[in-house]
């Protein structure tokens, strides 16, 4: 009698290598049916934004090609996860469903219901870790509480042994003679209706192989000076692996194993990069234990902070027309490529929530829609850090000076020139504060302040003073 198949349910783990659920499905010995279910209602209110959906389309196409090459097929379905899995179980005779765990509150709730209902129906269900080095439920303070500050968290998990990379026995993989019905990828409607995404196509190769190539390129050189270059948007000093991590085209175990095999982890560059991987872990730790934080500040008193609402101000920030070159370069890089350098993310978010007094949630929503690496845990932690209202947050009175930040981290102005071409002919001494240049200098660079390039949306000193005044009212 033929062995019943196993359904391998893909979610945010769109890869073959280091896939714990895939390894378990192969070990079970029966045929494998790979499945991805697109269920927008289950992801609400944090359904993937436009850039992330574009990435998901490419990632699913790439994963589907991987299965086709191996003689299999990725089954695509749209609808309620439990209903679709029940249908697949009925149509295929599968007696086992496996997946890798998710950690966002609404999705954890979905998985709990699916696991309970399928087991009640006599289906064997197993879930695995393939996304984190340390799952949130395994880390707590000495008092049994979740961590809210990164450094103690890092010290707690740093000594732990890291699980080795899982190597699925692909030579043993088996598939059924026939596959169940599959929806067309186009039915998911993930691609933009308006063709704004040409920059994404040019900038990204969305595949598991591309993720490993980026990692190896980074390890071969840039990682050695990462502790310095990670703050320089004018150089290629980061790995840019965040979107691949977001949809699981690479996993943190693979990254750490590659670091361990090729680097001295006590050296400044590799250790700084390793701590960034653990910062992502910390973000998931916070989201898991405080699932309300995408919509509410962790420090609940900040719900009463006197934010201002101004659509024109928000629009100027979103479109990169604030008059601060480093900020405008970052916002335009985001729109063009779906990604922004991390140092610049801190600068643009500080301007929005401090100088402009706009609610951090507005910034988080914009990043969610425009980042290809829109990760709910990291996005929430980052914005609450900037607003001073979250875990390990920078105090609200810490106000970045966008002029000095630009001069320090883009000293020649190369980053600004790339994304703000209106300023391309301006020398380095004025490129981060063009309003300080004499009229003949501006004319020579074909710049007309207030016309070809905006004047600052707010004076830095005045914006800082306003932010501190708002803080005083809040605390008063």
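Q: What amino acid sequence fits the structure above?
A:
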């Amino acid at each position: 009698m033929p062995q019943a198949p196993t359904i391998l349910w893909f979610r945010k783990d769109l890869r073959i290598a280091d896939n714990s659920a895939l390894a378990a499905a192969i070990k079970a010995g029966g045929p494998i049916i790979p499945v991805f279910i697109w269920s927008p209602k289950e992801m609400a209110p944090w359904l993937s934004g436009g850039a992330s959906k574009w990435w998901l389309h490419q990632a699913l196409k790439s994963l589907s090609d991987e299965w086709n090459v191996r003689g299999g097929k990725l089954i695509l379905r749209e609808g309620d996860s439990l209903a679709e899995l029940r249908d697949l179980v009925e149509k295929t005779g599968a007696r086992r469903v496996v997946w890798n765990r998710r950690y966002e509150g609404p999705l954890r709730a979905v998985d709990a219901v699916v696991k309970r209902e399928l087991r009640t129906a006599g289906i064997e269900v197993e879930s695995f870790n393939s996304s984190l080095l340390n799952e949130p439920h395994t880390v707590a303070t000495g008092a049994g509480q979740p961590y809210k500050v990164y450094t103690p968290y890092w010290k707690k998990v740093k000594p732990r042994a890291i699980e080795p990379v899982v190597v699925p026995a692909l030579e043993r993989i088996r598939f059924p003679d026939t596959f169940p019905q599959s929806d067309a990828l186009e039915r998911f409607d993930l691609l933009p209706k308006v063709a704004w995404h040409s920059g994404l196509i040019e900038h990204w190769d969305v595949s598991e192989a591309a993720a490993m190539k980026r990692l190896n390129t980074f390890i071969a050189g840039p990682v050695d000076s990462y502790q310095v270059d990670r703050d320089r948007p004018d150089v290629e000093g980061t790995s840019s692996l965040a979107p691949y991590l977001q949809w699981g085209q690479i996993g943190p175990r693979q990254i750490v194993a590659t670091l361990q095999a090729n680097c001295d982890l006590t050296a400044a560059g590799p250790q700084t990069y390793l701590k960034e991987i653990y910062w992502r872990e910390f973000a998931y730790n916070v989201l898991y234990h405080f699932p309300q934080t995408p919509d509410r500040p962790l420090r609940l008193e900040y719900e009463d902070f006197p934010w201002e609402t101004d659509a024109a101000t928000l629009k100027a920030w979103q479109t990169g027309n604030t008059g601060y070159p480093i900020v405008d370069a970052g916002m335009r890089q985001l729109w063009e490529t779906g990604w922004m350098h991390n140092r610049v993310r801190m600068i643009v978010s500080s301007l929005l929530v401090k100088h402009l007094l706009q609610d951090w949630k507005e910034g988080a929503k914009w990043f969610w829609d425009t980042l290809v690496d829109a990760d709910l845990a990291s996005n929430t932690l980052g914005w609450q850090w900037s607003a001073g209202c979250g875990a390990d947050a920078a105090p609200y009175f810490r106000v970045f000076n966008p002029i000095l930040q630009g001069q320090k981290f883009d000293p020649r102005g190369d980053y600004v020139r790339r994304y703000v071409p209106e300023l391309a002919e301006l020398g380095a001494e004025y490129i981060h504060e063009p309003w300080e240049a004499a009229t003949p200098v501006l004319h020579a660079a074909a710049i007309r302040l207030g016309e070809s390039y905006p004047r600052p949306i707010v004076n830095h000193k005045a914006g800082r003073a306003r932010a501190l005044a708002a803080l005083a009212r809040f605390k008063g």
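Q: And what stands out in the fold?
A: The mean pLDDT is 96.
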